[in-house]
Structures are given as structure tokens and as C-alpha cells.
Amino acid sequence: MNVADKDIIILVADKNMESAIRGVLSRPHSLGIRSVHSDIYRHLQKDSGCRTDGVSFLNSFSNRYNYALLMFDFEGSGDELTPARDQEKLLKKSLNYIWENRAEVIIIEPELDIWVWSDSPHVDEVIGWKTHDPDLRSWLREKGFLNSRSIKPERPKEALEAALRIIKKPRSSSLYEELAQKVSLDRCTDQAFLRLKDILNNWFGI
Questions:
Q1: Is the peptide bond before 156 cis (omega within 30 degrees of 0)?
Q2: Which domains occur in the chain, in start order?
């Protein structure tokens, strides 16, 4: 493929986010989009680097890709006082001086791990909890990670790490890719994920 024909460049905060996005993009039919040629880069300074340097990094590629996407976690970005949606608007405005409405920004609140906690039975399977008793949701409630009115833990990363410690399984990037490949994309109700689906459908929808 000629570099001028590349679909999208994506800058993310870390390897876990890269793996999750690769898993999502591997399912174009489920997204309602065509197959997409993407290049995904990780920022060395992770979330804070994406926030402060992501625009200049992506702007240097504006003639080589049709679209650009900047993604990072709200927590750990270095600016938890400015609402995520306000940051997205400011960063998108900066990008579009160069990209001319061909760029988007997604900030995940509080962090990527919120995408793990859909109500799909595949979550228990991928994590390795399928044969454990009680079931994962009941255990999360017992340990205070989940209250009776919530469908997702308030501290998703800590909840995942605690569950993985019980089953003696490391938290790895492959876990995020496998979840993205197996869990129904309709089951994740996180606003940032829904925005990702909308953006991809707008750019690459069949």
C-alpha cells in the first residue's frame, strides 16, 4: 500500500490501549465498517505525553494518512481538573488546524479498564473466572468494587487487578486484545467506546 493511501494513524497511551484498539479494528463487520489499514503508535510518556504532545506528533503525519485519532486515559493525564469533554474539544480544535476535520480525540474516563466491565459472559471466560464461585459480579460486590446500582466498578483498574490476583493471572496487553475480539461490541456502554464506534462508522462505514 502506498503511504498516501493509509487510512488512519492512531496515537495511544500504552500497550494495553494499543492491544484493545487492534482487537476492535480486527472486527470490521461487527463495527459496520470496511477493513481499515491503521498504524498505531504509543507515546513514551503515556497519557500525559498524549495530552501535551499528541497534537504535534499527529500533525507531522497529516499528509500521509486520511484520518488521525488521539486516545488516552483521563486519569494519569496530568489534568484531572479540566473535564475530559472540554479537553477533547480543545485538542481536536488544535489538530484540525492541520487535519481539517479529519482528526478526533477520545479521552477515556477514568481509564481504559472501564471497557473491560461489560455484562458479557466472555469477561469471566477471558479473565479466567468462569469456574470460580461466587461469580465475578457477586465477588466484586462482596469486595466493595461494585454497588447494587452500578454495572461497572468505580475503580475499574483496581477491580481487574484484584480479580486477576485471585486467579493468579498477570494483567497483560493480550488480555485487552482478547476481550476486544470476543466480547460483543454492542455490550460496552461506555461513552468513550460508543464515540469510538461512531467515529469509525463515520469515517469507514459501509
A1: no
A2: 3-111+181-204 (3.40.50), 113-176 (no CATH)
